[in-house]
Design a protein that fits this description.
The protein is an alpha/beta fold. It has helices at residues 18-27, 47-54, 74-83, 106-123, 135-145, 161-169, 186-194, 224-235, 239-253, and strands spanning 2-7, 30-35, 58-62, 89-98, 127-132, 152-154, 173-176, 200-202. The protein has an eight-stranded parallel beta sheet. The chain is globular and about 45 Å long. Bound molecules: zinc ion (ZN) (2 copies). The site of one zinc ion (ZN) has 4 residues, from loops.
Length: 263
């Protein structure tokens, strides 16, 4: 059994077969999925919550993605706070900085990121970080605005061993997506070898970045087993060890007791 720590099941690429994709995930041994709730951005903050309400095996996050930071208003932050008391909302995310696309002005991205870190801290909820071409600003903001913190995930980790070291020092869990299965992703693979077993997570980030041998297709949570298999091979562990560790880590960080889900 494995846990997909990050998927966008609300994406319109699943409109034709969402329930079938969820069934395929369960059949493949993906026992729990975290539906990332950023959706199309504010004012709709409930994309993940709707899925969690409808499916026993799905939990949700809520948050404003850096791409949509420019759409955020005061009311959205208040609504985020309210949604955090929903019993199936486990985290705030994905939040962070994306300087690759720059869909929102950088200073707005930073302000919205900081605001959500404050909300997470007040609520005692873990955070899920998206960072792209923005390592220095991301880590600097976290270092100054996030202490003391309730824990967090570096999602779709795309750095090398040096970046892994820095986020591990800050107490983060490191979540690997399909990139780690790509033959040329040597630095990410090296990072995957360095992360201690008790800080390792796995995700699909579906519908994006399908792992080998599904590369190029729409990704879906069922494909998570390929990423976990690759992590195990890289690290010299069995599939079962990597699966158990990534699942246990998810439950521990996101405070998901075994009794809390209908297996
Ligand atoms: Zn992301
Ligand atoms: Zn994502």
């Amino acid at each position: 059994m494995v846990i997909d720590s990050h998927c966008h099941l609300d994406d319109r690429q699943f409109d034709a077969d969402r329930d079938a994709a969820i069934d395929r995930a369960l059949a493949a041994g993906v026992e729990t999925m975290l539906a990332i709730g950023t959706g199309g951005g504010p004012p709709d903050l409930e994309a993940g919550v709707r899925l969690a309400d409808a499916h026993a095996h799905i939990y949700a996050s809520v948050g404003i993605h850096p791409h949509e930071a420019v759409k955020a208003g005061e009311g959205d932050f208040a609504r985020l706070r309210e949604l955090l008391s929903h019993p199936k909302v486990l985290a705030i995310g994905e939040i962070g900085l994306d300087y690759h696309y720059d869909f929102s002005p950088r200073e707005v991205q930073r302000a919205v990121f900081i605001r959500q870190l404050q909300i997470a801290r007040e609520a005692g909820k873990p955070i899920i970080i998206h960072t792209r071409e923005a390592w220095d600003d991301t880590l600097e903001i976290l270092a100054h605005k996030w202490e003391p913190h309730p824990g967090g995930i570096m999602h779709c980790f795309s750095g090398g061993p040096e970046e892994a070291e820095r986020v591990l020092e800050m107490g983060f869990f490191v979540s690997f997506a399909g990139i780690v299965t790509f033959p040329r992703a040597v630095a990410v693979q090296e990072a995957a070898r360095c992360v201690p077993l008790d800080r390792l997570l796995a995700e699909t980030d579906a519908p994006y970045l399908a792992p080998v041998p599904h590369r190029g297709k729409r990704n879906e949570p069922a494909f998570l087993v390929e990423t976990v298999r690759k992590l195990a091979t890289l690290r010299g562990e069995s599939f079962e060890q990597a699966a158990a560790a990534t699942s246990d880590n998810f439950r521990r960080l996101l405070q998901l007791p075994r009794s809390n889900y209908n297996g």
